[in-house]
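lol ok so funny story. i was supposed to be doing the assay writeup but got distracted and ended up predicting the structure for this chain instead. priorities right. anyway since i did it might as well share w the group, maybe its usefull for someone
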Amino acid sequence: MPKPLNTVLEAISKSKAPDVILIGGDSDFLAEQAFHAIREAIAEKQRGIAVESFEPGTDLAAVLDSYRTMSLFGGNRLLVLPEVNAFVSAKELSSLYDKAVADWSSAKTDRKRASSAAKLLHVLGLVGADVDMKDAAVADALGVDPGGALLEMLAFARATGKKASRGETDAALLIEAITRGGAPGTILLLRTGELPRDSATIDLIERRGAVVMMNLTREGFVAALDAAIAEVAGESKVRFESAAIARLRQRLGIERTLGDKFSRETPDLRSAVSEAERLITMAGTGGRVTADIVDREITAVEGGARYELASLFTEGKYVEAVTKLRELVAQGRREDPKTPVDFHYGRFLFPLADEVRQMIGIRGFARTHKIDLQKPIQYNRFKDTVADRLGDYLKNAGLVRQRPHPFPLHKKWEAARTRSDEDLFRALVELAELDVKRKSGGVPMEIGLEAFLLSRR
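and the output, tada:
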C-alpha cells in the first residue's frame, strides 16, 4: 500500500531513505509539495549528495542507465525525474493521446509544451512510430487526422531533438532496473500524475521502495487548505487568522462547492493557496491577515471571475477597475456610513500609486541587469531566473515590504513591458495631484479617481 508522506520523511530523517520513491495522485498541488519536501529532506539529511535532475520528457532509458551506473567520483547520488509515463498500457492509447492534445492546446509555457510532447512521444512508442517518420505516416499509425495539434507537437519534438520513448518497454525497463537495484548510494525520485490501479510496476516500487499517493477528496479539502495556508504563513512569519481562512473559503466559492451534495467537484487547491499567498505578501513579515482584509481584497466569486483593484489596474482593465472601485467604496460606506465619500475613494490612491512605483522599479531593474523588456518571458522561466532577484531589488528599494510571490510579480513584469517610463511617471504625478486636490477641496475624489483610471485607456 502507498505510504503516508510523513512516514517517508521520518525514514529519511533516520537515514533509511528508500532506494526508489514514486510520488503521484490526483492533486497536482499536493504531489508537487510532497515531491519538493522529499527532495529537500534527502538533501538536508545527506549533505553533499550529488543531485542529478532530468527534464520532463527525458528518455527513461537514459535515466535508468544513470541509476545503475556508479558515480565517477563516488559518493551518494539523488536522481530526480519530475514526470514519468511508464504506467500506461496500449489499451489506453486514445485517452493518452487526447490528454496530450488537451495539454498542448492549453499550454502557456515551454515546460508545459515539453510535458505535452512527452506524452505524445510515449504514444508514438506504443504504436511503433517515431518523429523521423512523415507526418501522414505518424497520423496513420495513431489513427488520427494529420493536422492541428499533432503537427505542432511533432514540430516541437523535432526542434528539441526528442525521440519517441520505448513505449510498452518503458515499464519493463523500470521493473528490471528496480528489481536489480541501482548503483550503491543512489536514490531514484520519480513523480507522475494519477496512479493507475493494478499496475505491476507500482506494486514493485511499493515492495522495493515507497509510493506516496497525494489524493485530495472533497471531505479532506478544508484540512488540506488549512495546512497549506499555515505552512506558507509560517514561512513568512505572518499570522493568518482562522476567521480569515473561513472568509476566504466563502469569498472564493469553496463553501458553496463543497456544500453542493449533488456535485463531485473538488475545488482548486492551488488557486486558493495562491490567493492566500497574495494576502500574506500584502500583510508583510510580522503582520496578520484578518477577515476584513479578505473582504476588502477578495471579490466574491461571480461567474467564475474575481479581481482585486490594483491587479485590474496593472493588467490594463480600466473599465473593470472602475466597477471594482465603486463596489469597494459601496462596501466601505455600508460598513462605515459616517465617513465622507471622498475619504472612501481616497484610501485607494495609495494602492494604485504602489502599483505604479513597482512597475517603475521593474523597468529600472531591467535596465540595471540589461534585460530586454521588449521580449516576453514565460512564467516558469521568470520564476526560475528573475523573480527572486527582482523581489529582492524591490524590497531593498523600499517598494515592497517583503519579496512578492512570483505569480503576481510576473503580471507586473508583463504590465511594465507595455508601459513607458514617461507614462508611469506621469501617472504617479497625477495621483499625487489628486491627493493634494482631495486635501485642498479641489475636484471630488469620486470624479478624479475614476477619470484617472479611464484616461489610461
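The first helix runs from residue 5 to 13. The chain has four domains: 5-87+168-213, 90-159, 221-306, 331-455.
back to the writeup now i swear
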